[in-house]
């Protein structure tokens, strides 16, 4: 048996089509959703993501701006830029690309973003709202994964979801979202002994560790849905994930590829969050 491949690119297109209709409606009211991405430093991977965010928002007829600053920028300067964006009425979404240089306090920067424009969902207020299952902004990557599961017809309620990785941007919010959808959730991480004992219990296995190909067929319960968040580029430019795809696909029931799985959904959900923000501000 070989797994169904969950086509994140195609599902992202469907999400984007829906957002497009919402953008058109807003434009009829004289509102153009605007996203500003703040990029500090010259990291090549970050440049790629930011480029694709910009292309997609332009395609949707949204305003997209990238503010690029050298890694030598001071924390104070960065905070001032965010204050200006918070005050700008045509900016509906603000995204500060992570990671930031070491001399800048990431928490301080994320807390300075107006929670109503925090389309990444990283502000503590939005983190708290997610925990309480209240309306706020949901982080794009885990939000996109929920959409992937829904579009692929994989039910969540009552399932055992195991998450490998507990970062603030992926693992933690992922678990919370699955819990809100009535899954039974297990978090695992680098201090989890005998990881396999946990992963082989998963009906839904989410992998976000940043460790290339660390999850193989042996970690997977036959028939499970496997979601690979990892993204790695090797020396000849080939992309791969945290899951060893060829070994995993023979055991899993459904699996996301890299590229073309979670990544395009992250971008699509950023568009949706920006549109949502403009709709809320229009009310
Ligand atoms: N496709 C997309 O849209 C996105 C992709 N990514 C990619 O996803 C991956 C993860 O990103 P992110 O969550 O930010 O990563 P972080 O480095 O912030 O977190 C990694 C997590 O994995 C855990 N971990 C590391 N090694 C192991 C191991 N051997 N066994 C079990 N757990 C382990 C860590 O544990 P501990 O807490 O104990 O250190 C940590 O919780 C990266 O490849 C990143 O590039 C990220 C965001 C979006
Ligand atoms: N504040 C902030 N928010 C983020 O959401 C954020 C961030 N910082 N820092 C970095 C990570 C990573 N990330 C990705 C987005 C899209 C793809 C993506 O589109 N991937 C394509 C391939 C793209 C390529 O060719 O490189 C795919 O998987 O098919 C990947 C990774 C968002 N992140």
TrEMBL record:
GO terms for cellular component: cytosol. Residues 139-281 form the Tetrahydrofolate dehydrogenase/cyclohydrolase NAD(P)-binding domain. NADP(+) binds at residues 165-167, 231. It catalyses: (6R)-5,10-methenyltetrahydrofolate + H2O = (6R)-10-formyltetrahydrofolate + H(+); (6R)-5,10-methylene-5,6,7,8-tetrahydrofolate + NADP(+) = (6R)-5,10-methenyltetrahydrofolate + NADPH. Residues 6-120 form the Tetrahydrofolate dehydrogenase/cyclohydrolase catalytic domain. Pfam families: THF_DHG_CYH (PF00763), THF_DHG_CYH_C (PF02882). One of its GO terms (biological process) is methionine biosynthetic process. CDD domains: NAD_bind_m-THF_DH_Cyclohyd. PROSITE patterns: THF_DHG_CYH_2. Its EC number is 1.5.1.5, 3.5.4.9. Keywords: Amino-acid biosynthesis, Histidine biosynthesis, Hydrolase, Methionine biosynthesis, Multifunctional enzyme, NADP, One-carbon metabolism, Oxidoreductase, Purine biosynthesis. GO terms for molecular function: methenyltetrahydrofolate cyclohydrolase activity; methylenetetrahydrofolate dehydrogenase (NADP+) activity. Belongs to the tetrahydrofolate dehydrogenase/cyclohydrolase family. Homodimer. This is Bifunctional protein FolD. It comes from Tetzosporium hominis. The gene is folD.
